[in-house]
Amino acid sequence: MFTATGDDWADRAAALRLHTRMFIDGEWVEGSAEPLTPISPRDGRRLPEISAASADDVDRAVRSARRAFESGSWSALAPRERGQRLLAFAQRIHDAAEELALTISLEMGKPIREALQTEMRAVVNCLRWYGEAADKILDELPVTAPNSLALVTREPAGVVAAVVPWNFPLTMTAWKLAPALAVGNSVILKPAEHSTYSALRLAELAYESGIPAGVLNVVPGAGHVAGRALGEHTDVDVVTFTGSPEVGRRFLGYSAASNGKRVWPELGGKTASVVLPDADLERAVRATADGCFYNQGQMCTASSRLLVPKAQRDRALELAAEAAMATRPADPFAVSTSMGAIVSEKQLAAIAGFVERAAAEGGEVAAGSADRYEAVKGGSYFAPAVIGVTPTFEVARREVFGPVLSVIAYDDVDDAIAIANGTEFGLAAALWSNDLNAVHTLSRRLRAGVVWVNCFEEGDMTIPFGGVKGSGFGRDKSLHAIDKFTDLKTTWIELA
Length: 496
Ligand code: NAD
Fold this sequence. Notes:
This protein has 15 helices and 18 strands. It has about 500 residues and is an alpha/beta fold. It folds into two domains: about 10-265, Aldehyde Dehydrogenase, Chain A, domain 1; about 270-460, Aldehyde Dehydrogenase, Chain A, domain 2, CATH 3.40.309. The strands form five sheets. Strands 13-14-15-12-11-16-17 form a seven-stranded mixed sheet, sandwiched between helices. The protein has a five-stranded parallel sheet with strand order 8-7-6-9-10, sandwiched between helices. The mean pLDDT is about 100. The structure holds nicotinamide-adenine-dinucleotide. Nicotinamide-adenine-dinucleotide binds near residues 243 and 427.
């Protein structure tokens, strides 16, 4: 759909017009909380301050969303009409894709090529998909007794709060907005602190596409202020959240302490890539390393654990180290760059800490180190690391959210499954084998929401995405996501 070309992205970034105020009721308004002071991880430069929402500002956004919902300006439109406007929204995003991709690259350090060719493509596809689906979602008419008629209809939940992370800022946003809007809800979006400009521009494009005032409000701000105020608001019906396990659980607590709103948490992961003895080791290791280093390792699905038979462990470590050495961070604004900057200095220090502690625990560091990497002066860069460990190491259990691959040897298949399932998470897993029987039986034993066999990161808008255990229980994408944002109503009619 898109191709990143040219070498003037830095000049274009300097000329970007960035929105810095909240978007409520179709207008740009000042927030009353402490402003956000973003820094570009590309070169450490300060970016324009962003006005941030206080609890009172969040209340204003919720009241606006509720008014819009009750007015029927969106909720009572024919589904076909809502679908058309979502398609118009998708087209505007398509036309502004280069500008949006550059904004993402500037604010969170993703390579411009990936921001444009992967992220913007996903955003446009997602909005188109739900735009096309809007008038194809059917109600039910179950057969009951002859003297009765029971209708099962879907109704929009009402006011939805979407709280999202920065790693795929607009993809995560689209996964929430598109199904919620398609069925008639009003949405309040709380973007992550590191990816607010792109969210604000998206809201403007939505408004220009005919999504009425108040139907999509954006409240930038600190998680513990604006995010918390949404979680605790008694007039929010649904929270859809993607982010860390800690904050996901906080939202469950906010709900319990306020109005018992539905919370859909989609949280972290610790994907195991299990290579069976018959697999093509080289292919499996390359794909696993790519899956671990992609997006600078800042992926909920990052294949951060490579599980190999004991006899193949040394060769796997060597191959993974080669893949790491071949991946060097570089300027996100260069179209040849495949690995960009880490989102912040804080995140960089957290990643380095994992490598340092793994080395201190006795891990075999086959590539990388705890040192920062200088790709662009002043920026936050980290070269991929590969470490030979056992399953009890901290780095093999906790989510790093950086390009750090743990290589772990297993004894037999039962041991491999026990290691793969042995973390608090259950988002995704991968299996590498051509043994049909093994892949079917083992994929059933993996406790994960997604299992990839002889591939990695495959997906489609028709297919749901989400995890089990500590990875949460929400599902994004596909028609299943509609369930999160609708209520089933039954109307029972007795016939004379
Ligand atoms: P985070 O949990 O720190 O922040 C996510 C959002 O929650 C942000 O908008 C933030 O401002 C807000 N927030 C933070 N503290 C809050 C609080 N006390 N109350 C209310 N809101 C608060 O996560 P992050 O660092 O932005 O993203 C990384 C995490 O997201 C990782 O754990 C990653 O695995 C996960 N993730 C999951 C998926 C998935 O689909 N399962 C996809 C992408 C990322």
